[in-house]
Specification:
The complex is a heterodimer.
Chain A lengths: L17 H6 L4 E7 L2 E6 L13 E6 L9 H10 L15 E7 L6 E7 L7 H5 L5 E3 L5 E3 L9 H5 L6 E2 L18 E2 L5 H4 L6 H9 L4 E5 L6 H8 L2 E3 L10 E4 L2
Chain B lengths: L1 H23 L15 H22 L8 H7 L18 H9 L15 H8 L6 H12 L1
């Protein structure tokens, strides 16, 4: 069985999706050479939800984020099935965490969620020796745990400490978030929800509390809510000096 | 007379042999949904290739509408345990475990993936009256989209 070409940037015709293509009957050309010998040629690219024209990102309004609120972290934990019991602080998973900052001169205190920043130039992908750490065409940075050998080089390369290592055996994982001992994991931007047209669990949880501090959307689409907000207000990517161009941006920081 | 005895002995031996051979094969539990259109013999040989092909498609290209996913495997091939709930791969009688133990092939899948179906599917499975194979297929199709 031939594996699909990964991260192909080929553009498929926009008005024809796979289902319609197959329905039209043009997709499969069957040639019968003789009894029991059939040649089948499949036309067209495999349908893929990761769209090369998109760049998924988050905008976090730090002013709207309350320091006593943990809804985004809880939402992520519930969605992806990692435990936040705090029993082993040194080895606990760190998909998303709340960070409190205080300005030394002015005394201004802010609180904000920190997770994988889904960089355009991700250092974790640069250093990965096996190709397990990769960036999807739509900008989501993931770990392919089928290939990950657990060397943790990516954890050292990440300037945001966004990744964590699974130290113990895990049971009863969420079907949408497989995780296992000996591999590195991090925020997936809830890729399983995004692929189905949804938004990440943290954004949903934040909206439910009424704080509305997190916004999710396509940074490449000038008509999206997030692009309009980025156009109107000043925002920062964390460690902009590293020129990683993170997909997660913070305003009022 | 001697010849008759020899034939009887050989026939008896053959019978014993086949009976033993049958007993050696793993007891494969029946799936709850509809059978694979490709046939069980094909799936027995090719399931890992099909799953590996589709897992890369999902992981890297984000294609969630794939034909062979582990989520559907563990749902449709769920085996009920003593409590009537689907059992995990660590328990005796799990669909995957039965054959893999027989073939002495280690399964890596369940180091990360859950070997039990979702709670939603378990609820459907436990429903009274029991769901039909078509209902289960419809649920699995929904899972994909």
């Amino acid at each position: 069985m031939k594996l699909p070409a990964l991260n192909t940037k080929s553009v498929r015709p926009a008005e024809l999706n796979r289902r319609e293509f197959f329905k039209s009957g043009g997709a499969v050309a069957t040639v019968t050479l003789g009894t029991g010998v059939t040649l089948m040629a499949f036309g067209g690219d495999a349908h893929a939800n990761a769209d090369a024209g998109k760049r998924w990102g988050l905008l976090i309004d730090v002013n709207k984020c309350a320091s006593d609120c943990n809804a985004c972290v809880k939402g992520c934990s519930d969605e992806n099935g990692w435990k936040m019991d705090g029993e082993n602080p040194e080895t606990d998973p760190q998909w998303i965490r709340k960070v409190d900052l205080k300005h030394k001169q002015t005394g201004r205190e802010v609180s904000m969620p920190m997770m994988c920043q889904h960089c355009e130039e991700p250092p974790c992908v640069d250093v990965c020796p096996t190709g397990a750490s990769f960036k999807r065409v739509d900008g989501i940075v993931l770990v392919d745990k089928h290939i990950c050998i657990g060397c943790r080089y990516c954890m050292m390369a990440c300037p945001f400490k966004a990744r964590s290592f699974v130290h113990e055996e895990i049971e009863d994982q969420k079907p949408n978030a497989p995780r296992g001992k000996g591999t590195v994991e991090s925020c997936t931007l809830c890729v399983h929800r995004v692929d189905k047209g949804g938004e990440p669990a943290c954004v949903e949880a934040c909206a439910k509390t009424g704080h509305q501090a997190m916004m999710f959307g396509d940074l490449n689409d000038p008509e999206s809510e997030i692009s309009k907000a980025l156009l109107a207000y000043s925002s920062t990517g964390l460690r902009d000096d590293l020129r990683l161009n993170p997909g997660v941006r913070y305003s009022n920081l | 007379m001697k010849r008759l005895f020899a034939i009887t002995l050989v026939l008896f031996g053959l019978f014993l042999g086949t009976a033993q051979a049958e007993g050696l094969y793993p007891d494969v539990p029946k799936a709850v949904g509809n059978p694979h259109p490709e046939g069980s013999a094909f799936m027995r040989i090719n399931h890992m290739k099909l799953m590996r092909h589709d897992r890369d498609d999902t992981m890297h290209n984000g294609n969630r509408d794939v034909k062979y996913s582990i989520k559907e495997c563990v749902a449709c091939h769920a085996v009920k345990g003593p409590q009537g709930l689907p059992i995990s791969v660590k328990e005796e009688g799990h669909f995957c475990k039965n054959c893999h133990e027989f073939a002495a092939v280690k399964i890596d899948c369940f180091q990360c993936h859950n070997s039990k179906p979702t709670e939603e599917f378990t609820a459907l499975l436990m429903r009274d009256p029991a769901p039909t194979a078509d209902e289960i297929s419809a649920y699995l199709k929904e899972l994909r989209e």
